[in-house]
Amino acid sequence: MAKLSCSYFLVLILVLILVFSVFLMVERAEGKRCHLTIDKATACSLSDCRLSCYSGYNGVGKCFDDPKVAGPSNCGCIYNC
Fold first, then answer.
1. Residue at 4 is within a domain
2. Neighbours of 36 (CB within 10 A)
3. Could you give the dihedral angle defined by the CA atoms of residues 54, 56, 58 and 64, in that order, rounded to the nearest 10 degrees?
4. Which helix (H) or strand (E) holds 53?
5. In this predicted model, what pLDDT tens digit does every residue of 32-47 receive, in sequence order?
6. DSSP character string of 3-52
7. Number of domains observed in the structure of the chain
8. What does pTM read for this prediction?
């Protein structure tokens, strides 16, 4: 009976190690998101914004208005750091 309990205990430990390893791998795969404002001087053109963000950072570009600064809309790039 003691041998059987020891075997179950070892299998449980191995399963826990496997689950923990998978959890760490998934956490690393997600990555972190960074945000960068591109070309603040000119008004944002959505097509140009998307193209420059994708080609420069492999990210997604979107136009946004900065509430702190009056002026033309800016191009924001969201990408994996």
1. no
2. 14
3. -50
4. helix 46-57
5. 889 988 877 778 889 9
6. HHHHHHHHHHHHHHHHHHHHHHHHHHHH--EEEEEE-SSS---HHHHHHH
7. 1
8. 0.55
Q: State how far Cα 10 lies from the chain centre.
A: 36
From 55, 56, 61, select the one nearest 78 (Cα to Cα): 61
AA letter at 42: T
Name the residue range of residue 76's domain.
Answer: 33-80
Tokens 């075997």 appear where? Answer: 7
Q: How far apart are CA 53 and CA 75, in angstroms?
A: 9
Dihedral pair phi/psi, residue 8, rounded to 5°:
-60, -40
- Amino acid 36 reads L
pLDDT tens, 15-68? Answer: 777 666 666 666 555 668 899 888 777 788 899 999 999 999 999 999 988 777
CATH at 75: 3.30.30
